[in-house]
Amino acid sequence: MNILPFSRPTIDEETIASVADTLRSGWITSGPKVLEFEKQLSGYFGGRPVRTFNSGTCTMEIALRIAGIGAGDEVITTPISWVATANVILEVGATPVFADIDPVTRNIDLDKVEAAITSKTRAIIPVYLAGKPVDMDRLYQIAAKYNLRVIEDAAQAIGSTWHGKPIGSFGDFVSFSFQANKNITTSEGGCLVLNSEAEATLAEKYRLQGVTRSGWDGIDVDVLGGKYNMTDISAAIGIGQFAKLEKITAHRRHLARRYFDLLGEDFGKRTGAELPPKDFESTNWHLFQVVLPDRITRPEFMEKMKAKKIGIGFHYAPIHLFKLYRALGFKEGMYPIAERIGRQIVSLPMFYAMSEADVDRVCSAMIDVLG
Ligand SMILES: *Cc1c(COP(=O)(O)O)cnc(C)c1O
Q1: Which of these is catalytic: 112, 145, 165, 182?
Q2: Disulfide: which of 64, 193, 198, 317 matches 69 by Cβ 3.0-4.6 Å?
Q3: Architecture of domain 245-370 in this structure
Q4: Is 182 noted as a catalytic residue in this protein?
């Protein structure tokens, strides 16, 4: 039997043909495909301005720059995310402040966000782990009350909703990633939903060396930008993937239901493992994450599952315990829930091409290993 990976992208033949067309067209960098992809995304996000980039990470850095956040400013985020979420705060010279997570949703705890706000706080970067949104009403109440910007790290949340509205179709800055393992991919890439055409124009400048068109024959440079543009090759993949977003989300929800059904109602009680919240409304099931009981270590569990030819992912180690962050003064014991969950959390296989039989295989292995 082949090893079942924890994630694998699915690119259909039509998309591959469209990429080949782009390669033959003579225009392979940013061009008409990028504009078309941005237009489609904007339509999905209720007409809000959208710009694409070559990663999800840079969209958050650019949003912070547009908001004018830098040295002396504090930005509150979660310790349980991909390190990119906190790195962008350091990248613009601001100070990362962590707030511990909610053990059930594994997302940042909004009570702890409110408690961490100081006179220097300028923004919040919430992460929707596994695609599950935080309480969006509460998030924006806090932002309004303390006059804070929000940069939503919705890297994992395309297709997720809040009160039926797509994540990205409301709120402040919303950042998505199209990295290879995300629900839809461009191989590498991302997009940022903005609030106005003025912000979108600034985003374009930060995306490409700060260049602005001015006058009849020239360009000028008025801000320090980088090189973050998406290519038409990537956009061609993105257009093909985006057309399937609804199907992808529906299939992932179906797989998640099957995980709950096969593991059984009493799985948690029997094994001490913590399953994710049963949410078939708002989350896109980017990941199906389980927190292991303390009697088994994560490496031990991963080894045992590997022996049964099942790939297990792990998202994430607590950011504040990385060397770079320890050097800033963060240490063990500061965010105990994140530390416990960061030590024991695993991601079971979850991807569009996965079959019901694959879920069955994972569940029998889980019951064997933990049961
Ligand atoms: C993937 C991811 C990122 C980074 O996205 P890239 O496109 O790889 O730069 C940031 N935050 C979270 C939560 C992610 O899952």
Answers
A1: 182
A2: 64
A3: Alpha-Beta Complex (3.90)
A4: yes
For tokens 């980017």, name the residue: 286
pTM over 0.90: yes
Q: At what angle do helices 232-242 and 245-263 cross, to 10 degrees?
A: 60
Question: What DSSP designation does 81 have?
Answer: S
Ligand 1 atom nearest residue 127's Cα: 13
Structure tokens, 132: 């599950």
pLDDT per residue over 253-304, tens digit each?
Answer: 999 999 999 999 899 999 999 999 999 999 999 999 999 999 999 999 999 9
CA distance 178 to 317: 21
* SS3 of residue 137 by DSSP: helix
User: Ligand 1, atom 14: nearest CA belongs to which residue?
Assistant: 155
**Longest alpha-carbon distance in the chain:** 72
- Does the 13-242 domain belong in CATH 3.10.450.50? no
**Ligand 1 center to 190 CA (angstroms):** 9
Pocket residues for ligand 1 (CB within 6 Å)? 55-57, 81-82, 84-85, 127, 153, 155-156, 177, 179, 190
Bond from prior residue into 206 cis (ω within 30 degrees of 0): no
DSSP state of 75: E
